[in-house]
């Protein structure tokens, strides 16, 4: 007899009573109240830390009252933030009102400029501290790439405005930062290319584009040693409705090039990769793992007691959505060691790949400025609620590698944590500081030791990257896209 994957939670039949009645105010208020209740309701059901969340009170009619908890909050986001405080470590759960996760992570479609800027504080020849705005990265296929923007360019003005000094007016500087990312209106940028004194004007506007997450895929030959270099910017889902998609094929083909070149070493650059689909992470891990681990366990899921009781982790049931994941290596690449480049922005699916490979090979993680990666060993799946008004992403699972390790909430680190990001060098050049650190470590016995510089080509010593508040936190996550046969819960609405 087949088990039906529906959750008969004790309290949920009761939650559909008076506590969820629609308020006769107006449609918007009505939807928001339902979304607030839904946020509380589903947190109780699917949260990895459901046992920390206060249970709803019983009303005079004996039914459990969600509204007694949610009525104090103005919107669903406030409800979620209150719940997250009870769980202590939940920095991750969020509400998607615009469907951006479906567009960006599942389909690879971004609606913006494809430019990520950066404020960098430097010291000029007169030892004065100066903070300027630069181009950090330009995504492939993006409007920014087509406009001619390049990494390391200084952005001198935006629509004639030069007054966005981070040191004196942080609020305005941050507004300009996101204006450049989002591209909601046409912009004329005056930029100064790296190493040049003359400026140029570039027109830029945001638009929908299909991201190509493989920014660089190449092989370096140094002293007869072949080093593969794979720069990956986002774990876009590698499966569509009909099976493997173009992102799957692109990743597989990239590694075929490494096999053809017979590489000795591999550097995977995830410095700006904040995560995405678990399926994409699994594919990358399968392509990297040595042949000895070709059929070994990749990872287990840790879920809440309700999921456990319903058999959602039952390895004897092929349809169990959170059963153990095993390697299924199909390529022939067989190397004993892999290097990963990471930053505090390297999160979730990126960290999953590093962690699941550790039991099978030498995993060298190189990070910057004495810090590790972000620290996000947990993930979620989408819960559409209130007739499509929003999607809830409640942290629902943690991933545990073959050796039983998955508690890297403070990030992952390796032997080398003092590397630096060569913001003023072209990505993929062996003299770019971060890549150079990895190559030097690989070639150390042969004394290759090609030096990199922390200076810009204008002679400025780089000090630090300025902090920017996160507006697109949904990108820093790990998503499991469940197939349509998985029915999670009865809808609240």
UniProtKB/TrEMBL annotation:
PROSITE patterns: PROKAR_LIPOPROTEIN. GO terms for biological process: proteolysis; signal transduction. Keywords: Signal. GO terms for molecular function: endopeptidase activity; serine-type peptidase activity. InterPro entries: ClpP/crotonase-like_dom_sf (IPR029045), PDZ (IPR001478), PDZ_sf (IPR036034), Tail-specific_protease (IPR005151). Residues 116-195 form the PDZ domain. One of its GO terms (cellular component) is outer membrane-bounded periplasmic space. Residues 1-24 form the signal peptide. This is PDZ domain-containing protein. It comes from Sphingobacterium cellulitidis.
